[in-house]
Design a protein that fits this description.
The protein has 3 helices and 3 strands, in the order H-H-H-E-E-E. By secondary structure, the protein is of the alpha+beta class. The protein is globular. 21% of the residues are buried.
């Protein structure tokens, strides 16, 4: 039985590599980039490792496809005093909108 620390370390490096590869390959081959993201999510689930925050926000929560700003997702910023400021990310593949709220310190 392999050591759990080593397994988690290997999974973390592979997840990072797969997301970087998906980002590089997306303009030429969308399907390959989506395959890389699927593999990265699978690695994280198997090894019980969290996907890093900078990459987690680059995956659609509904269709699990890689989001590349300007190509298959739309990003909007909204600033509201009452409801709270947020960034809206809309996947253009499935029209799912995810909001990331911003805390403003006063």
């Amino acid at each position: 039985m392999p050591n759990k620390k080593i397994v988690k370390q290997i999974a973390t490096t592979r997840i990072g590599f797969l997301f970087r590869s998906a980002h590089q390959v997306f303009p030429e081959d969308k399907e390959l980039a989506n395959r890389y993201v699927g593999l990265a999510i699978r690695y994280s689930q198997r090894a019980r490792v969290k996907v890093p925050k900078e990459w987690k926000k680059r995956v659609c929560h509904k269709c699990k496809k890689f989001l590349y700003p300007g190509k298959n997702c739309r990003i909007r910023m909204q600033s509201r005093n009452g409801k709270g400021s947020h960034v809206s990310v809309t996947c253009l593949e499935c029209n799912n909108t995810t909001r990331y709220f911003i805390k403003i310190h006063r």
